[in-house]
């Protein structure tokens, strides 16, 4: 406000009206300014209060340590988590130096780090041992500089989490992971044992026939041997020609000679069959982990189907279609396991059903060796078609299925660079399609 001294007093020394007006206006203005200022102050104060409450709730709720320190290390504010780690109340902490909670070299390390951060105005991370009532706890602190308006370092903010807690959580996680892995291994083992059991049932059945055949034939051989012994005894003791002729007819030696050959042949056939079965088994185990080789997919499928068929109690028709021979590249032992799984699943699905049938067709298609295995069972409902290959997915009762057969089979085909999936466009029953690398020139 500008005053003009010449006008303050009138000629008679009285205050000029105009001047009065000016003064009053100035007072009004000042008053209005004051009120406005007051309002602003209140608003600012409210903002500050809100900010303090906000900071307060952060300080009491963060689970990580949050510590605000001044330049020299005096604690300005700290989160409840930090205070409780020290066994102190938040109110008791202000005014303390941060150095009080770290021992010897740890203290120096921390103060050096804080000083560096403030000086360089750059964040840093250190691991230090915090001295707590229960011992020393490793904490990883991230230290950030606090700057004033002119970007001068005035202190630092530390945030960190006790590593002991993290490590404990980590080791618990590790432990449950380990347990899970063990359970999984156990289940895989169960599935393997189950398929081994099925295999053995088939083997036992398969061996039983030729062995009883060999047994029956050796029994006949024994009988013929007795007759020849009797005859030779008589020859040795000088029996007459007539007597020997009569004995020969009596003992039916002529027929015995022919039968002898049959019995020997029969025993040899049986023994050969046993040898073949053992050979099959030997290959199954030898090729289980071996190299990738060329093999006949049809033959492997025949052997697999044969084992399961022999081991299953119900009558089952297995038909082969397509090529007589389809050469693929892979580990026949593994592929045989896969095929046994598939056949077994079909057998399970068709349990109690009239005229159960499985059709296996092998062929070359799109430059690969393919095998399609279909049954005339209930088929696979669309809603589970996505999940049947998942580990542990089973619709069988507890103890009947592990839900691992298809998942292991799928993995085996993946390892071969091939595939195993449900075939598309299937009307009835279930159909599985397998693809492997083609092994012939074709
Ligand atoms: N041929 C099939 N017909 C109907 N359902 C099948 C057939 N093959 C597999 N499945 C379904 O897929 C599920 C998973 O099979 P799998 O992984 O071999 O485990 P598991 O035989 O132990 O149940 C079976 O429980 C069944 O529901
Ligand atoms: Mg199965």
Topology record:
Elements: H1 5-8, H2 17-61, E1 65-70, E2 75-78, H3 80-86, H4 90-93, H5 104-120, E3 124-132, E4 135-147, E5 153-162, H6 163-236, H7 241-250, H8 253-286, E6 293-296, H9 297-311, E7 317-322, E8 327-330, H10 332-349, E9 357-365, E10 368-375, H11 405-415, E11 419-422, E12 431-438
Parallel strand pairs: 7-9
Antiparallel strand pairs: 1-2, 1-5, 3-4, 4-5, 6-8, 8-12, 9-10, 10-12, 11-12
Bound molecules: adenosine-5'-diphosphate and magnesium ion.
What's the helix count? 11
End-to-end gap: 107 Å
Q: What structural class do helix, strand and pairing data support? A: alpha+beta
- The coarse overall form would be elongated
Report the count of strand segments: 12
Ions, cofactors and other bound molecules: adenosine-5'-diphosphate, magnesium ion
- Superfamily at the CATH H level of the domain at 291-442? Histidine kinase-like ATPase, C-terminal domain
In CATH, what is the class of the domain at 291-442?
A: Alpha Beta
Helix content: 40-55%
**What's the main sheet like?**
7 strands, mixed
CATH architecture identity of the domain at 291-442: 2-Layer Sandwich
* CATH-defined topology of the domain at 291-442: Heat Shock Protein 90
Poorly predicted regions are none
Mean pLDDT: 87
SSE ordering:
HHEEHHHEEEHHHEHEEHEEHEE
Radius of gyration: 47 Å
The proportion of strand residues reads: 15-25%
């Amino acid at each position: 406000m500008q005053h003009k001294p010449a006008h303050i007093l009138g000629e008679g020394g009285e205050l000029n009206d105009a001047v009065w007006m000016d003064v009053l206006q100035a007072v009004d203005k000042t008053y209005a300014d004051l009120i406005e200022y007051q309002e602003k102050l209140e608003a600012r104060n409210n903002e500050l209060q809100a900010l303090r409450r906000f900071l307060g709730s952060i300080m009491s709720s963060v689970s990580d340590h949050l510590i605000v320190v001044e330049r020299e290390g005096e604690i300005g504010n700290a989160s409840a988590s930090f205070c409780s780690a020290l066994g102190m109340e938040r109110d008791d902490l202000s005014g303390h130096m941060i150095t009080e909670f770290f021992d010897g070299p740890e203290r120096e390390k921390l103060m050096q780090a804080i000083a560096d951060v403030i000086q360089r105005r750059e964040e840093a991370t250190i691991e230090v041992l915090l001295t707590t009532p229960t011992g020393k706890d490793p904490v990883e602190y991230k230290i950030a500089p606090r700057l004033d308006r002119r970007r001068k370092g005035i202190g630092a903010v530390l945030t960190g989490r006790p590593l002991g807690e993290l490590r404990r959580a980590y080791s618990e996680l590790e432990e449950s992971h380990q347990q899970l892995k063990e359970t999984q291994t156990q289940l895989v083992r169960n599935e393997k044992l189950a398929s081994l059991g099925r295999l053995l049932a088939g083997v036992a059945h398969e061996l039983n026939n030729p062995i009883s055949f060999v047994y029956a034939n050796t029994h006949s051989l024994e009988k013929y041997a007795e007759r020849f012994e009797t005859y030779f005894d008589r020859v040795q003791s000088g029996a007459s020609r007539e007597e020997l002729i009569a004995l020969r007819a009596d003992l039916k030696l002529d027929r015995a000679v022919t039968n002898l050959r049959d019995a020997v042949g029969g025993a040899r056939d049986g023994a050969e069959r046993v040898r073949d079965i053992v050979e099959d088994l030997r290959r199954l185990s030898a090729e289980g982990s071996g190299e990738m080789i060329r093999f006949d997919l049809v033959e492997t499928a025949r052997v697999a189907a044969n084992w399961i068929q022999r081991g299953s109690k119900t009558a089952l028709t297995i038909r082969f279609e397509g090529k007589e021979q389809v050469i693929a590249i892979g580990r026949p032992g593994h592929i045989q396991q896969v095929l046994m799984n598939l056949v077994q699943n079909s057998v399970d699905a068709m349990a109690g059903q009239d005229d159960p049938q499985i059709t296996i067709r092998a062929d070359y298609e799109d430059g690969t060796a393919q095998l399609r295995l279909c049954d005339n069972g209930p088929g696979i409902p669309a809603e589970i078609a996505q999940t049947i290959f998942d580990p542990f997915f089973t619709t069988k009762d507890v103890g009947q299925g592990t839900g691992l057969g298809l998942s292991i089979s799928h993995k085996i085909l993946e390892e071969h660079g091939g595939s195993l999936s449900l075939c598309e466009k299937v009307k009835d029953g279930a159909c599985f399609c397998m693809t492997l690398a083609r092994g012939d020139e074709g």
